[in-house]
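Session log. Operator J.P. requested a structure for one protein chain; no other inputs attached. Running the standard single-chain path with C-alpha cell output.
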Amino acid sequence: MHALDAVRAFALLLGIVLHAAMSFLPSPTRFWFIEDTHQSLVLSGVTFAIHVFRMTTFFLMAGFFASMSFHRRGTPGFIKDRLLRIALPLVVAWPIVFAPMAVSVIWASQFPHGGPLPGAAGWPPVLPRFPLTHLWFLYVLIELYAA
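Structure written below.
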C-alpha cells in the first residue's frame, strides 16, 4: 500500500511544521515551553489544522491496518501482535524519551519564567495524568484496541 505510506510520510513531515510553529502560538493557547515574542494567529490556526488532520489520519490508518491484521491473524494473533508492536515500544521507549525531554523542558522553561520551576508536586504521576510525552498516541492506540 504505497499510497498510504506516502500519506503517512506527508503527515510525519507536517509534524515538523507543527512543532516548529508551536513557539509562535498566542498567549491564551500557549502550552509550549519556548515562547517567541512574535506571536501569530495564523500559525495558531495552521498548528490546530495540522494537528487535527495528522492525528485523525494516523488513527484512521491504524484502524485500517489493525482491521486487516485482525482478519488475517485472528483474535489471539492480533492481541499478541498489538502487544509486541504497540505496548512493548511504549514501555521500552518511555524512559528513553522521557528522561532527555524532562531535562530539556526543565532547562528551557527557566528562560521565559526567570528561573527554575517549582518542585514537582504529586510525583510520581498516575494515569491518566502520567507524562507520556510524545508517546501518548501509543497509549491511546492501546485504549482503542482494547475498546
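Operator note: Residues 2-146 form one domain.
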